[in-house]
Amino acid sequence: MKTTKTHRIALLFNANKIFDRDIISGIAAYLGSTRAAWDLYLEEDFRLRLGDIERWQGDGVIADFDDPAVAEALSRCSVPVVAVGGSYASEEEYPRGVPYVATDNFKLTKLAHDHLIDVGLHRFAMFSLPKAKENRWAQERENAFSALMRSNGMEPEIFRGCETSASSWDEAVQGQIAWLRSLPKPVGIIGVTDARARQLLQACIIAGIEVPEQVALIGIDNDPLVRVLTRIPLSSVIQGAQEMGRTAAHLLEQMLHGVRLPNTRILVPPAGINVFASSQHQPVKHPQVMRARHFIRQYACQGIKTHQVAEHVGVSRSSLEAYFRQELGCSVHDVILRFKLDAAKAGLASAERTIADVALGCGFTSTQYMHLVFKRELGCTPRAYRDRALSASGSV
């Protein structure tokens, strides 16, 4: 019986990045669904080994080429290499002689922009990253945003801010707040990553700027860690990173069997959007309703009651209920419960927390009560919702 040869493959990715982790998950999914036999070399910080990567005694490499140092080091590598990274408008930006699987930066940006249009916004901005070689993908998203704005006869509004560190954090936040206050409202803002959108969301909360009534935010990455780090769940474009990983693995497997694929370019579109409270803009005329909803979004999961919302706004409970009925057609309690439900849905979209932990963290008095709310509002149990969400994301 003929045995399948086992190949030694290096995966050069930064496991601290959700994009890279999803690429790795896609590679694992490919290996699990085929007869390919790979022994994987994968380190937490592979960049410490880049200096002599050309001496790699294995059979192939899949690597994140968004990092210029990786592209440079692998230019000296003699084994088959498949590159993964962001797309570029100019062919000159792509590495020569290697197949390249790209996330489609234009489509990512357009999907975020179209979503902000769909919720009724007419002004838009982007929060990007400082220009740097390792941030070329961010500049491509800026270019896509600028093209979309100009095609509609609008000037692009882009803020890069600064790289944040412990010593410059206060300065960075104050710069973000100053920019936010300068923008005409309401405005929809695209964060070039979820991490960047989370920073801006935090700046809005510090400055007392209502999200999403005045500023609607959407990021790119669909990072579950970011969702649990924000008081207001963040909407995000889902990159097709797992599909990119599967595609890259398939290309490398072909190369290991003698197929030549120089300068192959494959663009993978986004997989969709996870819509949460940060971008669910709904025009509200009454200032007390606007302030109340912003307060609810921040504190609903801490078990606040209607009378506490009224106290925060500075009106009687009966007056606030009347304003809510007039503006939104529902009670204050309905909005609190709706937000707790949205937060629970975001928590269940990851397998990292138990259902009981999600219920407690989202302000439900018990797991049984959350179960009743899910059945009444969504027609399914929390466990069934989680199973569907994980299946749709490819995590199971």
Explained architecture:
By secondary structure, this protein is an alpha/beta fold. It folds into 3 domains: 7-103 and 240-269, Response regulator (Rossmann fold, 3-Layer(aba) Sandwich); 105-239 and 275-279, Rossmann fold; 287-388, Homeodomain-like (Arc Repressor Mutant, subunit A, Orthogonal Bundle). The chain contains 15 helices and 12 strands. The chain has helices at 18-33, 68-74, 105-118, 136-151, 169-182, 194-207, 224-228, 241-256, 287-299, 306-313, 317-328, 332-348, 355-361, 367-378, 382-393; strands at 7-12, 38-41, 60-64, 81-86, 100-103, 124-127, 158-159, 187-191, 215-220, 235-238, 265-268, 272-274. The chain has a 6-stranded parallel beta sheet with strand order 2-1-3-4-5-11, with helices on both faces. It has a 6-stranded mixed beta sheet with strand order 7-6-8-9-10-12, with helices on both faces. α1 (18-33) crosses α8 (241-256), α5 (169-182) crosses α6 (194-207) and α9 (287-299) crosses α10 (306-313). The radius of gyration is 23 Å and the shape is globular. The mean pLDDT is 89. Keywords: DNA-binding, Transcription, Transcription regulation. InterPro entries: Homeodomain-like_sf (IPR009057), HTH_AraC (IPR018060), LacI/GalR-like_sensor (IPR046335), Peripla_BP_I (IPR028082), XylR_PBP1 (IPR054031).
Quaternary state reads single chain
| Coarse structural class | alpha/beta
Beta content comes to: 5-15%
Tell me the name of the CATH class of the largest domain: Alpha Beta
Strand order of the largest sheet: 2-1-3-4-5-11
The count of β-strands is: 12
Could you name the CATH topology of the largest domain?
Rossmann fold
The CATH architecture term of the largest domain is 3-Layer(aba) Sandwich
What shape does the CA trace take? globular
The overall pLDDT, averaged over residues, is 89
CATH superfamily of the largest domain: Response regulator
